[in-house]
Amino acid sequence: AKQKYKLALTEKPADSLLVDKFAKAERIVTISGDIGNLLQYPDRLSNNLVKTRAELTLIKASGFTDSSPSLSSSASQLRSIMTEVNTPIPVTVLSDGHTFVQVRGLGIIGTTTSKIIKLKPGSYKFEGKRDGYKSKIVDVTIPLNKPSFQLTVVADERI
Predict the structure, then answer these.
(1) Which tens digits make up the pLDDT trace of 64-77?
(2) Do residues 127 and 101 touch, judged by C-beta distance below 8 A?
């Protein structure tokens, strides 16, 4: 539509209706591109700054969804993925009862044999420490669309 309006404007540059329709089509294309960029890396939608940007983009898109079925579809997809990415899921952390476990940058789980915590989907580093043993780092990616997740962190390599 944008290209057709642009072509029509070359023939009738003073037509205000064409100018308005071209501007609307241009805006729809820009917003669609923004949504496409956000959908390209859905894991980033758990970041508060990216989430805020996505919410603002959805607000902009809401004024044009009646005019563009593809924009409506991609906006709906973005809303759905934002919900999935920002919904914490239960993560069962298993250990040996001697290893001190923590999630780097998030918090301490402590010394336990089993503990359930809730985390948003994404990448995390779990660290296990124990006196007389080498610390162990477990890199984990908690996937989308999984009802629960389980991992084991045990520092079992002697120094």
Answers:
(1) 888 889 999 999 99
(2) yes
